[in-house]
Amino acid sequence: MSRRLIIAIDGPSGAGKGTIAKAVAAELGYRHVDSGALYRAVGWKAVRDAVPLTDEAAIHDLAERSRIAVEGSTVRIDDVDVSRAIRTPEIDRAATAIARLPRVREVLVARLRSLAFDGGVVMEGRDIGTVVFPHADVKVYLDADEDERARRRAHDPAHSGSATLAEVTSALSERDRSDRTRQASPLYAAPDALVIDTTGLPIADVVRDVLERIQARVATA
Ligand code: DC
After folding, report:
1. What is the CATH number of the domain that holds 195?
2. What is the pTM of this model?
3. Is any ligand 1 atom within 6 A of the Cβ of residue 14?
């Protein structure tokens, strides 16, 4: 493979984006970027600094002034390692709230684009194939039944908290509703995305389907 591609993977929480994006990136020798980590880092800092999560101007300024670095599973904001601190129920809600703000998204979308200036990236999120990289070489949209997505999230060791499965399901459903219905860059599948329902599917099968789509794209390029 000569030209280094941009691969966009979108979908709701618990659809398998992280697992699949990581595996595909490792297979191709590409960089994996979890775009949600940027929204989480900004949400974390807003909570820490007691900035109201609906104050668009203040959160925009906070985002613009922040240095955010995402390397593998390590996330830093202004040199503070927040890798674990951003995966709590409180920051789930904060990230979803600030992700509704168009001016905050503008800042983060520009940062995400600059991470892929020379390709070779598998980026996962909600608007990667629709807004961040509408001309991505390959777009994938992963989905799964809500019950299965909640079960996966409840068993994900990266996420802390002692919530019951019912609490996880209700919080996930509320965040999804916000992500899908917000005015600014709502979650939906790009018309040219490969849509995969991962419910009950082994990870290896999904990775294989995505790699096949990438190979097919390279063959016709
Ligand atoms: O993928 P995640 O759960 O870490 O994302 C956290 C929040 O940020 C979630 O509400 C969706 C939002 N988000 C977004 O709006 N756009 C992205 N590209 C990535 C995440």
Report:
1. 3.40.50.300
2. 0.95
3. no
Domain annotation covers residue 1: no
Mutate to test the pocket of ligand 1, among 20, 101, 127, 179 (most ligand atoms within 8 A of CB): 179
The token pair at 201 is 């599917």
Q: Which residue in 68, 61, 8 sits closest to 40, CA to CA?
A: 68
Take residue 116 and report the two structure tokens written for it.
């892929």
For atom 13 of ligand 1, the residue with the nearest CA is 36
Give, for all 221 residues of the chain, the pLDDT tens digit: 568 999 999 999 999 999 999 999 999 999 999 999 999 999 999 999 999 999 999 999 999 999 999 988 899 999 999 999 999 999 999 999 999 999 999 999 999 999 998 899 999 999 999 999 999 999 999 999 999 999 998 888 788 766 788 888 999 999 999 999 999 999 999 999 999 999 999 999 999 999 999 999 888 87
13 lines ligand 1 (CB under 6 A): yes
What is the spatial distance between Cα 148 and Cα 151, in angstroms, rounded to a whole number?
A: 5
Total structural domains in the chain? 1
